[in-house]
Amino acid sequence: MTFVGGLVVYSIMWFVVLFTVLPWGVRTQQDEGEVEPGTVESAPANPAIWKKLLATTIVTGILFALLYTVIELELIDLRGIINRN
What is the 3-state secondary structure (H, E, C) of the chain? Predict the structure, then answer.
């Protein structure tokens, strides 16, 4: 895998993982009982975005390391799967 190819794969994986991590632990303003004026009741009370970005980076790093290992050590013959006709 080239550096640019790895960067592209990591970036795509990072965003996919981010969208799966975003709903973790979300409590709405309505759940907390403190709705800020001018916002909807379903808005997050404390989104903790920095913790979620860190969790996303760690999870993506682990998944990418596994994928990189499988590709570089050719544990699964991906080219054989693609060229099967």
Answer: CCHHHHHHHHHHHHHHHHHHHCCCCCCEHHHHCCCCCCCCCCCECCCCHHHHHHHHHHHHHHHHHHHHHHHHCCCCCHHHHHCCC
CA dihedral (64, 70, 74, 78) in degrees, to 10, reads -80
Nearest of 78, 84, 82 to residue 1 by alpha carbon? 78
What averages of pLDDT result for each successive group of 10 residues across the chain (85 residues)? 93 97 89 86 88 96 95 84 75
Does the predicted model carry a pTM greater than 0.70? yes
Which residues have a Cβ under 8 Å from the Cβ of 18 and sit 6 or more positions away?
Answer: 52, 53, 56
